[in-house]
Amino acid sequence: MNITFIGAGAMGGLFGYFLAKSGQNIFLMDxxxxxxxxxxxxxxxxxxxxxxxxxxxxxxxxxxxxxxSDLVIIFxxxxxxxxxxxxxxxxxxxxxxxxxxxxxxGNADKISQIVDPDRVIxxxxxxxxxxxxxxxxxxxxxxxxLIGMWSGKNNTALxxxxxxxCTAGIDTRIEDNIHLIVWKKLIINVxxxxxxxxxxxxxxxxxxxxxxxxxxxxxxxxACDVALAYGMxxxxxxxxxxxxxxxxxGPNRSSMGQDxxxxxxxxxxxxxxxxxxxxQKKGIPVPVNQTLTALVQTLxxxxx
Length: 304
Ligand code: NAD
Prior knowledge:
The chain is of the alpha/beta class and 304 residues long. 46% of the residues lie in helices and 21% in strands. The radius of gyration is 19 Å and the shape is globular.
C-alpha cells in the first residue's frame, strides 16, 4: 500500500518505521528540514529499549512534493491539523483514506471539512514515542491502536488497514463507536496534561499528592458531564482510569509538560480547551477546565 505521513515526528516516524519494515511503500512529509535531511541520508532510526534499528524511507520537507497514496496518516500536533488536511487532499488517490490518531478533540472534524468525510478514519493509539534529535526517535511504550470510520459509514478498506497495521506489529482493532473511544482518550489527556504541564510534575506525582489528585477528579468530572451532554456515556470510574494511566506512565513528563518545558505551543485548545468550547455550546459550567486552559494559554503566549 502507498502510505504518506504528514508529520513524521515522534509518532509519524515510529508508525512509518513499523510499516516500512513490513514492506509497505512509505513516504514521510515533514516541515522540519534537519529531520528530513537526516532521514534521507541515514534512514529513520528508532531506539527500542536502548537498541537502535533503522530503515531507509524517502522523506520531503517540500509540501508540493506529493506521492499519490491509498492512505494518508496525519501525525502533526493538533494546532497544525488544518494545514495537514489540505496537504492530505493533494496526496490522496481517488479512493484514498485519511487516518488521524492524534490526541485531542476536533482533529477528525477539521479533516472532514477538507476531505470527503466518508474517507476519514479516526482513532487512538497507546504507543508512545519521543523525538531525540533529527532522524532519531525513541519508542516509549506499546499498546493497542483503535480505529473506526469517523462518519460511521462502513468502509471495507478499514479491514485492509487493520491487517496491514497488525502485520507491521501495530496491534490494531476496529471500533464501531470511534467517537466514544476518542472521547475516552480525551478525558485521559484532560486529566493528566494541563495539571502536569502547569506544575512541572511527572505523571506519577498526580497520585502521590492528594490535592493534585482531587484537582484531577474535578477536571475529569467536568469533562465527563460535557461528554454526557454530547451523548457519550463514559464509565463512572474515568478518574480512576486516569490515575491508573498516570501510575503506569509515572516516570514520564506528559507531552504538554514537555511542550511547556521546551517553550513550544501545546495542544491545550484541543484538550481542556475543547471541553471549555463544547461546554459553552451546551451552557455547562466548567470552571476548572476553563482555569487550566487559561493558565496554559497564558504561559505559551508569554514564553521568553
Ligand atoms: P511531534 O512534534 O514529535 O511531531 C509532529 C511533526 O509534525 C513535527 O516533526 C513537525 O515538524 C511536523 N509538522 C508540523 N506542521 C507540519 C505540516 N504542516 N506539515 C508536515 N509536517 C508538519 O509530535 P508527536 O509526539 O509525534 O505527536 C503527533 C500527534 O500524536 C499529537 O496529536 C500527539 O498528541 C499525538 N500522540 C502522541 C503520542 C506520543 O507519545 N508522542 C502518543 C499518542 C498520540
